């Protein structure tokens, strides 16, 4: 099965989870096109200075993989700079947030939310 870019659903969230600016989410594959236990498989685009506010995952875990740009990742209250090629995991019951740490380019991450 091939899913064309033009067939993918795209949402733009402003001030996502209490964050700043615009965050574009492109769902690269959605149910029922796969059978696994995930809630989201997407790319997330954060414009310069945009962020996803800190939040807790309950009953699920989220994986980020930085495709391009530089991120400031809040890992349970500790800020960590992530670069292209870095990944992180927010496990069940943990908290995280994400900010585009650059003012001159977009941050793009792959996001996968697995349900438990």
Low-confidence stretches: none
What is the chain-wise order of helices and strands? EEEEEEEEEE
The fraction of residues in strands falls at over 45%
Sheet of most strands: 6 strands, antiparallel
How many structural domains can be distinguished in the coordinates?
1
CATH domain class name? Mainly Beta
CATH architecture type: Sandwich
The CATH homologous superfamily name equals Jelly Rolls
**Rounded radius of gyration (Å):** 14 Å
* Approximate shape: globular
* Strand runs, count: 10
Output the structural class. Answer: mainly beta
Secondary structure: helix percent: under 10%
- Average pLDDT, to the nearest integer? 97
**CATH fold title:** Jelly Rolls
With strands numbered from the N-terminus, the spatial order across the biggest sheet is 1-2-3-10-5-8
End-to-end distance: 26 Å
Number of helices: 0
Q: Explain this structure to me?
A:
Strand 1 (9-14) and strand 2 form a beta hairpin. The protein contains no helices and ten strands. It has a six-stranded antiparallel sheet, with no helix packed on it. A four-stranded antiparallel sheet has the order 4-9-6-7, with no helix packed on it. The mean pLDDT is 97. With 116 residues, the protein is mostly beta strands. The two termini are 26 Å apart. It has a single domain, classed as Jelly Rolls (Sandwich).
Q: How are the secondary structure elements laid out?
A:
Elements lengths: L8 E6 L7 E6 L10 E9 L4 E6 L3 E9 L1 E6 L2 E6 L3 E4 L4 E6 L6 E9 L1
Antiparallel strand pairs: 1-2, 2-3, 3-10, 4-9, 5-8, 5-10, 6-7, 6-9
